[in-house]
Automatic annotation (TrEMBL):
This is POP1 protein. Pfam families: POP1_N. InterPro entries: Pop1 (IPR039182), Pop1_N (IPR009723). GO terms for cellular component: nucleolar ribonuclease P complex; ribonuclease MRP complex. The gene is Pop1. It comes from Certhia brachydactyla (short-toed tree-creeper).
Amino acid sequence: SKKQAEKAVHQKKEQSKTKCRKARRRHINLVAEFNHRQRKNIWLETHIWHAKRFHMVKKWGYCLGNSPTEKSYRACYRAMTKHCLLQDISYYCCLELKGKEDELLKQLARICSIDAGLTFQEASCLSGRFEGSLNLYRADRYPEDMLGPVTFIWKPRDGSENRQLWIWVHPALKQDILRELKAIFQCSEPEEICITEPITTSIQEEEQVEVVTSLGNKRKKEDKEGEKAVPVKKIIGDGTRDQFQSYSWIAQTTGIAISDKSMEILRYRLIGPLSHSVLTETLKAASVQTV
């Protein structure tokens, strides 16, 4: 028993040597580990910040911050009423439509109704000045078969008859709404297929981690060579779309194109009276040079 105890202590020491903090915290090791942990639930770009301060929940294919671990409700309320509160809502899905304005409006009119309020043809929204919100229905089925609420933004006109529209939908509604859009515009042909390299299997990832750990004891020069020798693949896709599925479709008859831009565009919500001043202080207008 004494020998077994000594053996256990010795094994523990060996393990702690190979898994020292420096080796564990090396960037290449972290990316491989993070990718492995995102297999079922995708992380937002603010995930690490939220994971340290929030109780996380797994919903709609994402890992999201649900409630704060500290008593920060008063601080949040104060920020909303007097200052500025920022929320990461990048898990909302963005569906992009491109094509002739007349064709877009003709078919979009089938999935909404003037009787329910705003439509895609509202003048202030169509110009691109304002974001609109409405409820979508299955084609020609209003007031039955509601799909759900969406918000939309038209890209301002550039003199061409072609327009670009972004429709923002909740991830729980995305598949149904995307299916309906593809049906009304007859977009069946994949325009682009995601042909990214597959995510490494768990065995390969384990091998990567082992290689990185063993490299941790070597000198810096060898360490840098080791980094190049162990490639880490980035996760492509989002919680509502498989990485090998098509993400863009085109209609052969009208040329209308639908693209799934989910997780390719970050979205933040600013709440509070100082939101505008925060934005103006943060964002600077680019100087456009016309030749």
